[in-house]
Amino acid sequence: MEKPITLKLQILDLVKQYSEVTWPEKKFVAGKTPVPVSGRVFDFDDVSSLADATLDFWLTTGRFAAQFEQDFAKLLKAKYAILCNSGSSANLLAVSCLTSQKLGKQQLKEGDEIITLAAGFPTTVNPIIQNRLVPVFVDIDIPSYNIKVDLIEKAIGARTRAIMIAHTLGNPFDVDKVLAIAKKNNLWLIEDNCDALGSTYKDRLTGTFGDLSTVSFYPAHHITMGEGGCVVTNQPKLKILVESFRDWGRSCWCNPGKDNTCGKRFEWELGTLPCGYDHKYTYDHVGYNLKLTDLQAAVGVAQLKKLPNFIKIRKENWQYLRKGLENLQEYFILPEPTPKSDPSWFGFAITVRPDAPFTRNQLIQYLDSRKIGTRLLFGGNLTRQPAYQGLKYRVTGNLTNTDFIANQTFWIGVYPGLGHKHLNYVLEIINKICLKPSFALRK
Question: Is residue 221 among the annotated active site residues?
Fold first, then answer.
């Protein structure tokens, strides 16, 4: 019988052959081939890495997760990257860890406030509510679609303890001003970097400015594990807390399959437990199980090698659309990058002007009928969503622009699965409805 390593190599070679046959490059046919806003972009390396992990049959967090955490932290020039099962879970962990009693006077307590946006994705806000904290909503600027920085200080109240905001569609918020406000007022800063992996502000990667930052590896994002997320921090105390909340809330810090890392597993005396109670079954926090599998991490290890090229294509596609829509600004407000930033764009935002000869909904329905995918700017105004009726929150000023984008804004794709043939078709269809709206809308 052949040695296992030889058999594994033969299997992985067959996986490569299978991948090349099963997922060949598809020809684009305008009007017939869908143009999605996002999607997974992968090759045989990703499938082979997944098969490699499968053959290990180590189904929880393992060697690939450890490798990804190390490589990802190195990429961001951060000390710690802590994997979990989704970007939404990463946001939950980032907020939850700040409620730990181990933070002393820095601990967030029930009723404390976190400044955020109503114009965003719900799971940036949900962890605030789930931890019995209070979101304080601030309006956005257009065309950056990021927080109105000048309103942040006005939003600070006696119980405000943190700021948690995303870099909208990959466009960095004004980091200098937000950091200065956070420092001046002794506020925690959580960067939701889920849509902005590879974006830079003053030549420094986003996701490295806050006390904590979060990343998503869902198929729509810059790289994918299928499902998966990550919390990034430079602070050892926060790393330990994030891992505790991720791993059932336990006190023990042993990796899966490991015992007695502390060297005194049966010697601890914690809480009112009996002296020597097994440290593996001692809990510091009311936590969760939000780990990911090594199978997911294996895909991430392969995807991470592709990230530089993915970022390059996203930037090029965004610029291609920006140039192609330049002559239609009487109908649209086009997006603008934040000064001092170089975004790794998640999507291309388009805001339909109120006096355009068509509505936002008419336009996206027309695009949909031509197999061009669109998305709204996430939840629009979250305070108007059914889930948030009757919940406790505070609004500073008004949410005029947030309401405006809820009615007028959508976005189209720039992800690496799209090339010039796709984008030229998108531009052709948008031009058609702009130049002859009555004719186009009848079709």
Answer: yes
